[in-house]
Structures are given as structure tokens and as C-alpha cells.
Amino acid sequence: MPITKLLERNAALYPNDIALVELNPDIQEKRRRTWREYSLVETNPLCHYRREISWNVFNEKANRVANLLLSRGVKKGDKVGILLMNCLEWLPIYFGILKTGGVAVPLNFRYTAEEIRYCVELADVNILFFGPEFIGRVEEIADDIGKTRILFFVGNTFCPTFAEDYDRQVSNYSSVLPDIEICEDDDAAIYFSSGTTGFPKAILHAHRALSHAAAVEQKHHGQTRDDVFLCIPPLYHTGAKMHWMGSLISAGKAVLLRGVKPETILEAISNERCTIVWLLVPWAQDILEKLDNGSLKLENYHVRQFRLMHIGAQPVPQSLVKRWQKYFPGQAYDTNYGLSESIGPGAVHLGVENIRKVGAIGVPGYGWEAKIVKEDGVTEVNRGEVGELALKGPGIMRCYYHNPEATAEVMRGEWLLTGDMAKQDEEGFYYLVDRKKDVIVCGGENLYPVEIENFLSKYPKIKDVAVIGIPDARLGEIAAAIVETTEGTTCTAEEIEEFCRELPRYKRPRRIIFAKVPRNATGKIEKPLLRKTYHADKLVDGQNKA
């Protein structure tokens, strides 16, 4: 069924239950109060530290957005962009777009002006909603994209002259559901790839894919109306959105937190009585580091109800999970694997019952199939051999929009080639080896950076690590490890080289570089940036000259 039906059901069955809470610690008040002292305020929507809306208000706001868009000529299949930081307006706008039969197009908040222009044009966006953080970037391109498109400004500050004021406009429209027939086969959303090999690709999904993502999340994590989900990653990303859809299908409360400091996360868990939290590796590492050094103490927070922590978006070091369990014994844990082409997380998942298999990404998720194939993209490898992971299920994308060549490269009938190299053990659990494009060929041997990263992450002085290939005249490529050490520690390359003696000789990194490991908004290591920064001609004796 269309994903919009879940929102309408919740509004009918649980109209007064809280659906969404926004916490924004960046906004300072004259007097610091607890979050629970802040009540819902409908005016000046982006200026309050804590705001909340019920399922009924959520649905009514989405209906108002839909009727506003219909009045501006939006038709079934038209594309509408969203360029907002996480806020209480984000999801009502998203669902308002869907209620018109239109296609929602979330944009990465890190995009430059030129990337915004590119994505708006690629996806045929007719209308763009944008927030105050993006005024400068949108203004750069407003003369071009604004000629044939409507720009709505969402915020409590002065509306720029090149846009219309969303708040003033939307309040004039009916909160009654528009009479638009939508089915599960209709187009619903376009998400963009990470763009690690140039400008991003536009990934088109149907309503069926979104509804399946909601079912997958609820099945995997057993969410009920009593659960409170803490959502920290950006909603433009399929990972955050589809994990939140577990709250949508179960009619549970979700908390949208703007801020990733360990204190902020634990305060949100404590004050809002959160039961489920999805973290990225760097955030979990930061929490553990502060717990280790004593600057955070769990006894100062209410965390007894915190029943599940899960991680996705990137490989998870086994050592991290073991450290986490020391502070949160008995808490369930899950790893989620997916990609935007498979509507985000859950295509493969560890399963809370399989904690003994930490290190694996898991088994095919609810309604999903998986296999590992050879270079031809069709023939399966023998169990235990490395090949490319392929997925099949209701959440597979329709296509790369306006890019049939790229679509043909990754689709084999109903199967999607993920670009991830993996292997399967005797029990049927899948393990990520590395991205196909990240494999390092050193002297004819294939090196998989993730394997080396997982090994190095066990060293107690290493907080984060990334392994890349850099050109070498004799071997073709060599492995370089960019190492970020834990706060307050002193570490030398010789120490790490000694630790690496446990690795086979050909897998040991030939360069050790001490620097911060850059990650994007969804927690993935920015390896193209690292390759550019630490190219061979910038390195002398393992140190960066730049």
C-alpha cells in the first residue's frame, strides 16, 4: 500500500499520541530548562529548543502542504525537492508531497550550490523547500533555478526576496486530505547516491519500496507503540528515514535530535526515555571514549529503558560492540546493511538474536534475498569465496533516473549488484570484505582495506582508522593507514607496525599516517578525499607534507 496510508491510519487511531519531537541544543535560551518544560508552539516553528506534534497534527500539516502544492500546479509524478536540516517540518513536507501523488526529492545538506543545481535539474524538480542554513547557497543559483521553479523558504527568519514564505502560505490551505488516488506502484521518492565517483546519481523508488522498508524495520526490531526511537542522522538519507519508518508503522514516538555530542545524545535518551537508538560508528566511539575517561557517567542518566542500539552505513569493528556491551550489558544489538538503491538499511541484517556473530553483516532481511556472484554478475561463487554481493527484494530501486546506462551496469534482471565485495560462512552469514572499487592490488595480491581496518581498530590507542591504496612504482599500490588516536594518548608508527606483525606480511600497511579520519554525514569514510590528500607525491617517510 502507499506509505501515506500509514500516517493516515495513525492519525485516525491515535490522534493525540505524540508522533515527533524535535530537540535542538544549538538554540540557546536565556534560562536553561529541562526539555520537558518546553511545550508545543505553532508560531515561529524553528526557534524552540523542544517541540512536539501529535499524529493528528502531523497528518493535518501534511494535508496542508499537499493542498498548497496542488494549488501551485503540482501533478502526479511531479518532483518536489527538500533541502532542510532535521526539524519538525521535514516529515510533514515529505508526506505532503507524497499525498499529491508527487515524488519527494531530499537533498544532502552538505551539497554546494553547484551540486544543488545539478541535482535539482537532474531530478526535474519543480518546487524546492529550503531552510535558513541554505539561503546563501540557494541565492547563488536562484536566478537560474528560480526562473522555472517555485522556491519556498522554511524558517522563522526574514524570508529572502527570491523565495516565498512557506509558513505564511501553508497556513492558508485546508487540512483535509486531497482527493488524489495513489497506489503502491506509483513513484514516491528520488534519493541521491553518495557521489564518491563524481556527481551523484538519482535513485528512483516506488511507494511499495518505502512501505516494505517500514515493515522490515518493524520486523527486525520488534517496535511497538511503547518504543521511542532516537533519530540523529540526517533525514535526507535513506538510512535515517527508513529506520524512522519503524516508528511510523508501529505508531511509536520518534525524537529528531540535532546534535551528535555524547552528552547531547545521552540527555536525549534520558529525558525522552528513548528505547531504540541508531548510531553511526564515530558517535558510538565518542560516547565510549568519554565513558572510558570518566567525563561521562551513566549513573547521571536514565538509560534503563534503552533496549536496543543498532549501527549501519559502514563496517562496524567488533571491538566497538564489545566495549559497548561492557557499559550496556544485556542490551540488544543489531547491524544493518543496505544502500540507497535498496531503500536503505535492512536488506541484510545481523539480527538481535545473533550477537555471537558480531563482525558479520548478517543474513538476508525480511522479504530479501542475497547471493555472492563472480565478475560476470550472475554466476555464484563457492561458499567462502569472495565475490560481489547481489540483492533481490521489494525495496530494489526502479532505476537511476535519466541514466539507463548506469542502471544497466548494476541490474541483472531483478538482482542489484551492490558494488560490495563479500563472503559467506558455513552458517550462511555474510561478511563485508570491501567496496569493489576500494580493493588494493599490491604486487598482484588483492588487499581488502576493511579487513585491515578491522584489525587495526582492536589496538586500544586507535580511535578511528582508514586504509587506502596509494601508487607505488614497484608494487603498483601499497596500503596506507590513516590513524586517528584516542584523546590524550601518545602513539608511534613503530607501535602500530609491531602490532601489525600478527597480520600476514602482505596485508601490513606500508605507511602509517597520523591524522583525523574524515567521515561524511552518514558515517562513511571519505576515501576519495583521503586518496587525493595522501597521494604518493605528498608523502615522505610515511608522513604527510601537505
- The beta-strand count equals 29
Query: What name does CATH use for the topology of the domain at 55-206?
Result: Rossmann fold
Rg for CA atoms: 23 Å
CATH domain class of the domain at 55-206: Alpha Beta
Structural class: alpha/beta
Biggest beta-sheet profile = 9 strands, mixed
Give the proportion of residues in helices. Answer: 25-40%
Q: Which second-level CATH architecture of the domain at 55-206 applies?
A: 3-Layer(aba) Sandwich
| Separation, N- and C-terminal Cα atoms | 54 Å
Shape: globular
* Average pLDDT metric: 88
How much of the sequence lies in strands comes to 25-35%
Strand order in the sheet with the most strands: 2-1-11-10-12-13-14-15-16
Low-confidence stretches: 29-47, 540-546
Total of helices: 15
What does this structure look like?
By secondary structure, the protein is α/β, with parallel strands linked by helices. Among the domains are: 55-206, Rossmann fold (3-Layer(aba) Sandwich), CATH 3.40.50.980; 439-544, ANL, C-terminal domain (GMP Synthetase, Chain A, domain 3, 2-Layer Sandwich), CATH 3.30.300. Helix content is 28%, strand content 26%. The protein has a nine-stranded mixed β-sheet, with helices on both faces. Strands 4-3-5-6-7 form a five-stranded parallel β-sheet, sandwiched between helices. The radius of gyration is 23 Å and the shape is globular. The relative contact order is 0.09. Residues 29-47 and 540-546 have low confidence and may be disordered.
